[in-house]
Write a structure and sequence with these properties.
This protein is an alpha/beta fold. About 40% of the residues lie in helices and about 25% in strands. The protein is built from six helices and eleven strands. Strand 10 and strand 11 form a beta hairpin. Helix 3 crosses helix 4.
Amino acid sequence: MIENNAEIRKVVCEQRILEYQLTRKQVKNINLRIKPDGKVFVSANENVPVVFLDDFVKGKQEYIIRALDKYEENRKYVTVAPRQYVSGESFEILGKSLRLKVSEETMEFVSTDGVFIFLSVKNKNNFKRKEKLMNDWLKNLQVATFHEISTEIYHIFKKYNVVYPQIKIRYMTSRWGSCQPKRGIITLNSKLIEAPRNCNEYVVLHEFVHFIHPNHSKKFYDFVAMLMPDWKERKKELEKRL
């Protein structure tokens, strides 16, 4: 619910557009609150210009986005039924739906033939062990896949004197990736492992272009189109899945 003296404002930040509810109160400082439902609240006295408050939110964008992603992730775990890691469960891997096959073996491992994921454990009833084996396998797959694609894409950018960045992987709710040009970091959404490889290539190239054009300007998109003419088709495919 919006208070009578509140104003909804939007700020265009580097990573996304942030919306916040501004309320004027008799307070000395600017107060920022982020609620678990994903709403952002700012309160300040009448003497603080809205331009200053917008800049304040922009300056706090990394903190706000981290908090919003964390709350969104918590809501996801509340609403989505947990996996049981039993035969027949489906996992989306690089655009394909792979079925899980669980078996009891003396050697524990996870592998795939591109159709099935084979999970071998000493005890099929040991949920924690199955969960750990699958999580470790997925993390290793993400690291190997994203670094392979990043290395391939990087060859395009060598001639532009771009230094190979640090590649980070983490779960994000509303972004496929982000780039911090000054720190030399690209962060990729772990859920990208579910999308086809060509979609992953688009996201990685998109983030690499930020080392040349930090903002989403016309020059940025012209540069993306020059390097990847079918980027819009890849983006549409990605939007269907994530």
